[in-house]
Amino acid sequence: MAPRAALVLALGLLAVAPARAASPVELTDVRVARRAGGVSVELRTSAPPRYRAELIDGPWRVVLDLEDALYRVATVPLAVDADPVRAIRGSQYRKGVARVVIELTSRVPWRVEAHAGGLSVLLGAPAGAGPATPAPPAAPPASRAPARAPELQGIVLRDDGPVAYIVAPGATQARGYRVGEAVGGGVVEAIGARHVVLRTAAGPVELFLDVPKPRAPQ
Q1: pTM over 0.85
Q2: pLDDT of 42-51, one tens digit each?
């Protein structure tokens, strides 16, 4: 009877023995891809990982810790020219934890999507964003004839103040203007005996009366 009891005991011990632990997940690659409105950082793993992710400031960065994972990436750290990502670095942070740090140029919206091949960290891309669509080329500005400058045709000095007779741009005849009145995109600032000063956004503009030149002696 003793051998039989020993066999039963041995079978009982086999029944309660713990199953062998599953193999750790391997992090094998980290890549960067552009998406509409932002950037996607792709983490490739040998199986769907368990992970923790958080955004940290000073400087801004996303830190991902993959648990029960081995770090097997040979191309990190990466210098990235894909705003808002500045650089990516990673390591075997401690036994059983593979860490990836995504350094950012500024704080942006972000989220992590898990899938069968690993993780996608979406930075700055709105939910459901599709591929980028190129913007249509801007239409060339319509050509316009240059605006004609105001034309001073005469000045009358009166007791109640001088009056300048000016043909404004687009007008067909002269009209009298006093100091302070608007004409041709400017304002009459001063009226002299033979010239007028207009105040415009680009600076002062002077208008002069055409003075007929004396004829040469015959």
Answers
A1: no
A2: 999 999 999 9
